[in-house]
Structure formats: C-alpha cells, structure tokens
Amino acid sequence: MHEETLRSVVVLGSTGSVGTQALDVIAARPGGFRVAALAAGGGKVELLARQAAEFGVEAVAVADEAAVPALKDALAAHGARPAVLAGPEGVAEVAAWPCDTVLNGITGALGLTSTLVALEAGRTLALANKESLIIGGPLVKRLAKPGQILPVDSEHSALQQCLWASGPGGHDPDSVKRLVVTASGGPFRGMKRAEMAGVTPEMALAHPTWSMGPVITINSATLVNKGLEVIEAHLLFDLGFDRIEVVVHPQSIIHSMVEYVDGSTIAQASPPDMRLPIALALGHPGRIPGAARAIDWTTAHTWTFEPLDDAAFPSVALARHVGSAGGTAPAVYNAANEACVEVFMRGALPFPAIVDTVAKVVEEHRVTPADSVDEVLAADAWARARAAELTT
Ligand code: MG
User: Any idea which positions bind 1-deoxy-D-xylulose 5-phosphate (predicted)?
Assistant: First the structure.
C-alpha cells in the first residue's frame, strides 16, 4: 500500500491471537495505519492498556464491565486517556467507531453484533470472527455490500487471492469449477475414531502447524473448524456445497485452491502465519511489504495431500448438512460445539463426544429462518442449553 494513505483501523478482540498479530502488522507499518479504537473481553486489562497507550487510541471497550476499574488504573499507569466503554453496548459502540476498517477478531458467536454493527456503519470489515458470518448468514449477507467483507481466515484469504488471480479480464464466476479448502488434519490426523477416546485437552491444544487461540485450536483437532470454514466459503463465494472440497495437506503451506472449468488449479502458498491474511485484509487492495516470511526455496520441501477421513472426522459432513439446511442450523452447530468444547476443556467430556453431542443437538433442532438477531441468538442459547444437558 502507499505510505501516504493513512488508514484508520478499529481492532475488536485486540488482546487475542488475531488481535495482537494485527497490531504487530500495524506497528511495523507506522505510516500506513492509525488505530482509532480497541475492544477486548476484559481478561487482559494490562495488555489492553499497553496497546491503548502504544497506539494512542481514542476509545477502549471491555465486554466485561467488572474489568473497568482495573482497566482505568492500568490506563492511568501508562499515561493513556482514551474514552472507556463497557459491556456489549460499549463493544458495539467501538464497532461503529469512525474508521476505515474494522477488524473483528472476537472469538465465537459473541462477535455477531459487532459484525452487523460494523457493516451497517459502512466500514470495511476484516473478518476473523467467522462464526458471525456462519451463524448470522442471511442477516450478514443482506447487510454486506460486494467487497465489504475481507476474510481474515487463511483458507478464505487464499481463495480470494486465487479468484483475484484467475485472469486478466478479472474474475469470471462461470469459470470456477470448485473451491478446494485445505486442512492440516490437526494433531490426530491418521487416527481412527476409537483411538481418540483417550485424547486430553493438552493433546488437542498441541496443533502441529498453526499457533492460534484455544477454541479454534480444539476446533482444528475435531475438524469442526474445517466444517465452519466450508460454510464460510459457501457464504463468502456463493458456491453450492457440492462445489466445495476439503483436502488434507499436513504442511499447511497451500492455504486453499480454486479449480477452474478448463482443468487449471490456482493455489496460494506461504508458510503458516496469520499476519499474511491480516495484512491482506488491512492493506487491501495493496499488499504490505514484509508482512510475513515467504517460502524458502533454498531448502527441500515435500507437500503432501490426502483425502479427508470422514468416518474419523464426521464434523465436516455434519457442517455440509447444517449449511445446506440453512436458517438457524449453522448457529446450532456452532453453539453446541462451543458449549461442548468448554466441557471438554474442563476434562469432563471425551474428545469424540464433542462432535457426537453436536450431531445430537443438530438432529433435535427444528430449523427456522434466521431472519433476526433474536432468532439466531435464541437458537444459539437453545443449542448451548441442550448441549449442557447432554454432557452432564
Ligand atoms: Mg482457517
């Protein structure tokens, strides 16, 4: 991007994995960006205050109102005086704060309101909170103008880049045969379902290639994350589920591919590093020099691909099912999973029971249209309660 175009950015979930990496990208590009406001859950007020001071932001919000006194103390200690907002309303106010781009790095279904508020306010939305798009599908799609959402998910950033690269005349939707989403396979790749009964939270948190937040790391071990990403790809790129493939690629170098009708496949390759998709979304339509390390071609590489074992990892087929059903079904899949992951992390649920329970909750759910936030959140709450019942 050009140094002279100073872009103002709001970072939601600034103390999380994507949020901190986004601020790294911004800090490395002092002439390129200004951080207008930050929001976080409230569990890391010292880090949030340090970020607010470093970037001289106008406002800071914490979702947890109880964190406000500690945040104010920490801000004073750092000599920062931004407006302090709190609660879900405070986070929503920051999501609508005057700026060019809102990066939504909130984890989970909680991010829905922020996504809707930022879109409504006309901001470019750098979307790391895939759950908001997935659970609020029709609502989000109704609000979003073409190009207003830029995916900050490595696979979807890759798909977007492959589509941009499709031809000199620009992207022709009729030329796309299918999207091929890659999956690392997670730490239990090659295991059969019966072997996963003894998996502990520690084992599931040890991801072979990516360093990410805890929920998405567990979701990568169950491949629920890949299921969510198939729905995300369907919503972002308007292709039917029969034209979205998943292939296991353990090295996580090819981040996804687009196959064209003439037999050509375009792939995007880079070492696994979230700073690249973050930089692409923040710097769009330019590329930020040095945002991430490139592939080192002076050493030998082996890239392998294998089909997904649907029997060992039923989460992806289940996601296709809920994605095709539409309405409140994806919200139920996501919420039941978030609830089950919490129970698993406490050591109170066997690993394979996460997806088994999600499947049960999905099966019991009567799908309704997801035409309002209330409807989505009601389905979300029902699924969490039902998953809690089934896991106690
Ligand atoms: Mg991803």
Answer: 130, 154-155, 184, 207, 220, 225-226, 229
